[in-house]
């Protein structure tokens, strides 16, 4: 296939050098439907990226689209800060009935501003207020956002350096299986907590991703998460699960921590919660923690009502029964099989893989290989991104709504891209 | 008029105590058009609030609505991070041609995430990176956002306390006319900068609003802004204008700093830039400052393509000639006349007013009066909020597209609300 | 007079580049008595420096020397941490009877470690503990020490930069007469405190020197100090007077703040408190503030018993009546007269002077002149140092015990050095 | 033996509640000689405490005493900041010839102020300046001082809380044998350094004690120290050994790190360096690190000349041959034998011991036992203090000059005190 280089001059001339995805994928995208994007030159791209987890229901999902356009057509409130609206009420009721109650959760819902980092900032503020302590424990290779509060609990040195100030009040601990695979979990963290001479500032909370998406598709075992929840309880720390990328069904169940049988004190949700790729974020917390004063945290776009509409539609469409979870696990097994084959075929290249639900990672001994695979996949019409501190992991994040045929098509491209880069 | 108390039980049961506007305006809003909102009980509310400055073109502006629905109907890309899209290109071209070039500005455009605080965080990061210093100077009663970086340069003690950590690396300086009206401007700030023994950490940048919206409608004089720009130049500090609330025509010209004839090094824009109340934010900076590495700052919803569509439509509709600016100034004079009358009538209550373009503030000696006026206005069908550190200022922020008749209707309600609360 | 360059090679080879006084005064000092030092080549130096205020009673004062040698001879305890000793008891009793009681002060005495910066660190810790706040207000051109806590409230940019971390939790305010001489005192500070939107982190305490020694011999007026004390009381901030350099009689009375009629909540004392130039420091505070837990602050050399002995001897010798204060003021007038003459004679050079008691400063329009005067004075056998952010002030700090003849001798040298550098 | 309760009323009335040792040892000490203290009631106390390591050569050592009194008698300079003096030259020459050269060290000598915390503050400043980074790694149960810079790298939670501000820019790592005894050394630290996604702020330096005195007599193995030095070299971090308590022969050789065969980049020395219990401290560093500007760090009492005199005398008396080291190791073995016996006898109480040279610790399963043993020892005329985060370790720190008979006497008391508290 011949690729005509698109004319990117406007972006180069007017947009900041900070732009990044457009560099990996030199195309000018125009339309999208389901698992496919289309550029303005008519090329088609299968999507194994899904808006970095924001498009779990695919692009411009027709059910959500209908609900959204109807709402706009009838002049439903668009922007409402935290005024009460019918759209917000419908979302709250749906979220309560479809998500919280069936899971025996009575968490309060906060709209902290429509991005993940808003949710993390509010979660950290609340934890610090509740506990009266400044320090937060995060994990190696965590990613929680780019505003200063979130960045301080993010691991990536390059992103941290961008802060321009020393990032403090956070302490990294080893994520599951970070050390040598033999060192007992939490041996270090627990010792620090127990020893009043350890020098650890007593943490207000621990913030964790169950599967680290940006950090390299590092999957925490259920027993590790349970032990972490137990540690938090024994040492008076709040447990915050950042479910921004792994929630909304990405790993199978609606919340990624359900498999472990834990219930976090605070949960951050964003990305696919709006359903249609519209900005929306939630911070959920146990009622006893709801000690906010009115307006103590806010944000202009926290009441993005069109997103409430698509969010409610998505919940009603996909989460009133267990079908979505089952389907995700089934699709995931299909990926797993392919990755197993690839790893077997490329044992000489030190290939390994890991994942859960519909999030998977493929790593080679040579860190540059991941980028090469993604570049080749793009040429072959598949969007795939890398993750990990050295971009060393090929990350699989297709829409949850992908069909078996689409998935197979994508996996064939991956298999070929791996071979082509050998 | 009899008000039936709406059923707010869902919000009270499920939503966090942090909610605030819904407490002042106990109604459940459903639809909105132009300058009016409608609640589900059929009541009509004239809007002198405009989504805290996010709805300069009114609710569900029909031109923008058409463009938005067309885009959605044809499955235009919704969510794209910073991939290149046709919608983004159209926005960039429009912004360059309609906004930047006519003002002789060659600022680069960054999409830092779709909220004001994302824009401020990125502006502060960039300033720190460029100058290699941590400290930022802000002004008394500034408001720049609620994530930790932005909050550190925000004045409000209640909001600052919510951080849960000491907010450092920021130093407040007196805003225009903050002291006794006789003290020369910048006498303190400049002395600190000149004196190597002053104890001021040398700032990377100064961040300022030309009119402080949340801080109490404090209007900086053009000569003060020019002197500030001059101070920045002489002392090697970047000048950041936070035009999130006052930009997009609120004070008359597109950027609020145009009247002063200054060109800031960095500009943050959000709220009405999307045009339709959809989340969008920009950070603009001189090309020489564009030293970002790819991805050094990012955010999942930084490519909110539906907002690009409405943003471009708004610019093309309202900003290709000088009509909007003229109209805003004319409408503003109408408000000014009414406020002058109110102040004269209520001289005994120590009433004062100030403002510019279509942002005005009315203050009484008794700080509680502002809340009383807004409450009464609400009963009379007008949305008005307070601002200032003690909520002591009634804030006028109607859509720029308000008709003279609507404006007069609102001003009559205000006049009555002031009388009723005497 | 021919100066043989001394052999400084050992210092240059072995000692760090951080050394400073030895560069201004290239001599190898061997002995000292009263107001004179003697180098190993037999040269004599009159001392207008007095160990930067640590030798108010002159070098090797015979009364204190006797007491010290007697104590050493009889094997009195030398090092005792905070164990109870007879020497410490004698000091405490003397300090209580000679210093505290006659001034109606019931301050508790803390031994925070034997240096000024230990005292300041403990004062700041205590203030923060008592008030539960992090922020401390200091003043432009303040100097409080070189450990991180003290440095954060010190003004000098060069010294601050040495910290290697951003110094935070301190905010500088204008010292007396810092601005244009017309701006009302505290107009800015008080406004910040009153305005909950000012962005000032509410301070735990204010730390101030009554006369800034390192900062350039800046003399606070008594009424300014009283207004500051009043401000602290009205705004719930502790008042810390750092009397390390100006206490022990330097300005006349034992404490430098006595003239203003104020009683600080916390006082730091060091330098001349030991009397003989031996390391000792005290932190004094109102009994109600004594909420320390045992050992919450400590230091290995906090019980420097030989210094207790000389300290008690100095108090008993010089402070049981008002003679010392009278004499200091009389000697000070002598300096003042000379400085007035110099300033008159050198009006063309923009000479000015200021001071109180036996601390005076002489400044010229050309900042380099102060260094030139001190260098010439050294050649003429007089030790004089500069102070101020640009070393622009010649600082007069003779022993309080200097005789009128010695003082005249020194002032004659100063007069000549000024002329010689014209 | 009947103890008359001493009259401590002056201390209680005048001195701050912060005092601590005087509470454990309710006596008023008056004189001291060699290994004995005498209170004013004539009681004798054998000293197994040695001024917390400041009196390695015993109390009022006659050789040093003679040198000191001679110096005072002849009016040698007492206080000299960093002016060049004959006493300082003699010390520098002696230190170079007796300490540095024989060990092939060419470290520069800095006088940072006369206390240990001054030395640590200057070491951290220098490391940060050299590397341009803020972060310092310290170890669990480290103790480095009480001023804010030193406290931030100190482990004890109680002491840290006294800061009144969050202590940041420090990260604790596990000291030797901190975990389970099976986990490989540095597995965690090295992984953090290697992984750019770990979230560790890249450290400027590592600060370590070879034996943690305050932390509970935790002895680092030589191979652990060597591995640490290697880690520092490989990861571009400076190695700072805080030898304030363990240097000057406490563990045998002059520097405690000699046994491990490492040469730190920066070394802090204080406590016994003055020899006579007089305040003195040194910061030593490789010549290439000596990038200080003149006066960039300073302190009023950094030139404590009487301490230079006793320091030089101590070096000349005790360190010109290997006798002191041999004697210390021999005396240490005597302690070790006794502790082995005690531990055997009290195996039922879970007694353990550890140490090196003349610093030893005895621990029981019940943390309160250590305090009980020390209290009983005091009644029996022996000064012994506890250490460790819970004061759970009896700490043996006799003067290095203790005679075998005195040592045996003390060990008999210890044996009895342990029995008496069973």
TrEMBL record, chains A, B, C, D:
GO terms for MF: diaminobutyrate-2-oxoglutarate transaminase activity; diaminobutyrate-pyruvate transaminase activity; pyridoxal phosphate binding
Name of this protein: Diaminobutyrate--2-oxoglutarate transaminase
Record organism: Streptomyces harbinensis
UniProt-listed InterPro entries: Aminotrans_3, Aminotrans_3_PPA_site, Dat, Ectoine_EctB, PyrdxlP-dep_Trfase, PyrdxlP-dep_Trfase_major, PyrdxlP-dep_Trfase_small
Family: Belongs to the class-III pyridoxal-phosphate-dependent aminotransferase family.
Gene3D superfamilies for this protein: Aspartate Aminotransferase, domain 1 (3.90.1150.10), Type I PLP-dependent aspartate aminotransferase-like (Major domain) (3.40.640.10)
Classification via NCBIfam families: dat, ectoine_ectB, PRK09264.1
Keyword presence, Transferase: yes
Pathway in which this enzyme or protein is active: Amine and polyamine biosynthesis; ectoine biosynthesis; L-ectoine from L-aspartate 4-semialdehyde: step 1/3
Keyword Transferase: yes
